[in-house]
Amino acid sequence: MAYRGRPILLKSVTADINNSVGINAPTSTESVGTTVTKTTKASVTRGLPLYTYKDYSPKPCVVYTRNEEEADDLIQCLKGPLGFDMEWRVNRRWESRTALVQFCDEKIILLVQEVIESPKVLKMGANIHNDGKKLYRDFGIRASALLELGALAGTADPDFKQTYNRRIVALAKVVAMYEKKTLAKGDVRTSDWEAELDAEQQEYAASDAHCALMVYKRMMKIAEVQRLTVDPFELTTSVVATHVPPPVSRTTSTASTGTFSSTTTDPPSVLTGDGVPPQPMSPQWMRAYNLWHHKQMPLSGICARLRSPENPLKESTVISYVIRALQADPTLPYSVPRLKELVQQEASSWQRHRDWITQQEANSWNV
């Protein structure tokens, strides 16, 4: 489901494209073969037409939405395999939060957490595992069944290794090799993906997800023509936070991987998300905890109860109150999955408390 503070949504609805492996789908081993392998890597995209989903028949109809309820309603339409891509605003001083996630199956492009985390739905792209790790850093979503297109190509197309003898290959090069197209460049790539998208951004984003699916379909066709048995799920990876048992360092937690290393003897239960010892229990923290845990009150209700319906507390403030109560008194009972669900409702709160919650997950697994 979609949550407040998560990336904006882009969806593309199209008629059936089961036969749209390409504009001129290969029909024989020769036509599927490697005319590209004789081309130098530096010139692989030179002179190729620009890739756009608009060239494929039937032409997809792109619909752009920022509405979470609409995204939730459309979840039943998504089926694998799925083209996958992400966009975020470029900032030289810090890593910006993911602003847009695109999924493309044969009918729709959409952001849905259940699909991202499902091990049964194949998601493919270039450098896709690192995208999955960024999603976890930003929103706590653990992506599963991530298929690197370069890994698939190395298995499905013997000629691929003659050109690129590595697992991760840039999407532009893969598209050039298999779709004979070049991906869009220019300012749109580094534009403001956090603002409402214009038509150029929508086309760019839709084409990026669409091309991943088209390349996947062509690779599977190559394997079929060459009579190779390829199970793409055997090549997938999943984002899993790994942990070193306590004691945990105050300063050496690695946010990009969710991995913890140890240099001190401080137990994780007495550290805040910033590695700072918690303050003594506050009555307001305990009140927030009781409303959340014992009263099972929704976040919006707690915000209103702790101040007033007309001027409720910020969601991030209430979430911090609950976290601080649990840190101040480690004996308080709570459900880790339910706590994670609470924190994920406000994206900045997840980034702030991610390391501590991840450690609590690890502790609960070891009980």
From TrEMBL:
Extract one GO BP annotation from the record: nucleobase-containing compound metabolic process
**Residues annotated as region Disordered?**
246-277
Q: Name one GO cellular component term.
A: cytoplasm
Single GO MF annotation? nucleic acid binding
Q: Which UniProt keywords apply?
A: Hydrolase, Nuclease
- Identify the InterPro entries for this entry: 3'-5'_exonuclease_dom, 3-5_Exonuclease_domain, RNaseH-like_sf, RNaseH_sf
Task: Write out the biased-composition intervals (Low complexity).
Answer: 249-265
Against Pfam families, the record matches this protein to:
DNA_pol_A_exo1
Q: Does the keyword Transferase apply?
A: no
- Give start and end of each 3'-5' exonuclease domain: 62-224
Q: Does the keyword Nuclease apply?
A: yes
> What is the protein name given in its UniProt record?
Ribonuclease H-like protein
Q: Which organism is it from?
A: Gloeophyllum trabeum (strain ATCC 11539 / FP-39264 / Madison 617)
